[in-house]
TrEMBL record:
Biological function: Bidirectionally degrades single-stranded DNA into large acid-insoluble oligonucleotides, which are then degraded further into small acid-soluble oligonucleotides.
Annotated GO MF terms: exodeoxyribonuclease VII activity
SUPFAM superfamilies: XseB-like
Cited PANTHER family: EXODEOXYRIBONUCLEASE 7 SMALL SUBUNIT
S-adenosyl-L-methionine is among the record's keywords: no
GO BP: any one term: DNA catabolic process
InterPro entries in the record: Exonuc_VII_S, Exonuc_VII_ssu_sf
Organism: Marichromatium gracile (Chromatium gracile)
Protein name (database record): Exodeoxyribonuclease 7 small subunit
Catalytic activity: Exonucleolytic cleavage in either 5'- to 3'- or 3'- to 5'-direction to yield nucleoside 5'-phosphates
Record keywords: Cytoplasm, Exonuclease, Hydrolase, Nuclease
Enzyme Commission designation: 3.1.11.6
Complex and partners: Heterooligomer composed of large and small subunits.
Length: 80
């Protein structure tokens, strides 16, 4: 008996893109109730995936900044 291939979770970027697509589809108001509920359920799962990725990234940043306690925070410039 063969195992079904395991699906790896989407990356943060993939999950966010799919979540945006789901929101757009829900806003079109062209889905049935069942389709809307399925899309909403998928969206909740993707939201959790994104949240976990952000929490992991935040932990990594904390580890890196804790490694240099004498480092001064710098302003983050979003404009290049």
């Amino acid at each position: 008996m063969t195992k079904a291939p395991e699906h790896s979770p989407p990356t943060f970027e993939q999950a966010l893109a799919e979540l945006e697509s789901i929101v757009d589809a829900l806003e079109q108001d062209e889905m049935t109730l069942e389709q809307s509920l399925d899309a909403f359920e998928r969206g909740i799962g993707l939201t959790r995936t994104c949240q976990q990725a952000l929490e992991t990234a935040e932990q990594r940043v904390r580890i890196l900044t804790d490694a240099r306690p004498d480092a001064e925070p710098e302003a983050f410039d979003t404009h290049d």
